[in-house]
Write a structure and sequence with these properties.
This protein is an alpha/beta fold and 270 residues long. It is built from 8 helices and 10 strands. Bound molecules: adenosine-5'-triphosphate. Adenosine-5'-triphosphate is lined by residues 30-31, 33, 35, 53, 55-61, 211.
């Protein structure tokens, strides 16, 4: 059971006084396992925070908790000033899962039209919907595929349709679960440029998971995870300096070794 903070969702005036995400003693149990153990962290607004760690360390579980789709969440988890899962957050968060959620028998534009109609219904909004759909398709560089059936696209192109859906409502917080998996280096670079544009131009907060450590260098901040715990919460520069490492990957390995030597991951982060 979640210990929700008391009181109503934040007022607009308080919007930038709170972090995008604030977790205290956050614990999630999945089946027989404790997938997240007693996490304390904040995600600052307007920046890209990378969530990195090996397969199975709990990245997707943490993202699911933040967007409010994860059961058995204990502790405190506030998102944009409201308890995670609060109905007022639905239109303020964009979430892209690892499995692209697109309709194969619709074109790219029809997929976006469908979700746009849910987000912004009514005949009066038709012009705005059309403009938002065209912009979102352009954002993910799929304009030349707008009339192609989603079922005929490559895996990477389908992932970008999902991302375009998440961009439709101009969300304040974008939660992207491994958005660059399976993409070629050029597309990966283009998508990271897009993520930086979204943060800089719209002031949006992005939480992006990856298990590819070279992507860590592209983030403003990092949450490094291992076995359901947070090993480090810092900037890439500070992590490299603190561990006297050349890369974030080397810093991560250094912290893992420290954690093993100390008999637990929490000690290493201090
Ligand atoms: N549906 C589920 N039921 C029970 N346990 C699960 C379920 N999904 C994941 N888990 C467990 O929760 C833990 C965290 O999994 P999670 O998917 O969050 O990791 P991840 O870091 O996102 O991994 P990956 O990078 O491979 O996607 C793992 O031990 C996993 O086995």
């Amino acid at each position: 059971m979640m210990n929700y903070s008391p009181g109503p969702p934040e007022k607009e005036t308080a919007a930038h006084q709170t972090p995008a995400v604030r977790a205290q003693a956050l614990t999630v149990v999945r089946g027989p396992r404790t997938a997240l153990r007693d996490l304390d962290f904040t995600v600052p607004r307007g920046q890209i925070t990378g969530l990195l760690g090996p397969s199975g360390c709990g990245k997707s579980t943490l993202m699911r908790a933040i967007v409010g789709t994860q059961a058995k969440v204990a502790g405190t988890l506030d998102v944009l000033g409201s308890p995670a899962g609060h109905p007022s957050l639905r239109t303020r968060i964009g979430y892209v899962t690892q499995a692209p959620s697109v309709y194969d028998d619709l074109t790219v534009r029809q997929n976006l039209d469908y979700f746009a109609a849910i987000l912004d219904p009514g005949r009066a909004a038709a012009g705005r919907r059309h403009a938002n759909v065209t912009r979102a398709i352009d954002d993910v560089d799929l304009t030349t595929y707008a009339d192609a059936l989603a079922g005929n696209l490559s895996g990477g192109q389908r992932s970008r349709v999902s991302l375009a859906v998440a961009l439709l409502g101009t969300p304040e917080l974008l939660v992207l679960d491994e958005p660059t998996v399976g993409l070629d280096p050029v597309l990966r670079r283009d998508l990271w440029n897009l993520f930086h544009d979204i943060a800089a131009q719209r002031g949006a907060t992005l939480l992006i998971s990856s298990h590819v450590m070279d992507e860590a260098e592209r983030c403003h901040r990092l949450l490094l995870m291992r076995e359901g715990e947070i090993l480090a919460d810092d900037t890439p520069d500070a992590l490299r300096t603190r561990t006297r490492s050349d890369t974030v990957e080397a810093a991560f390995l250094h912290l893992v070794d420290e954690a093993i030597a100390a008999g637990g991951t929490k000690e290493a982060a201090r």
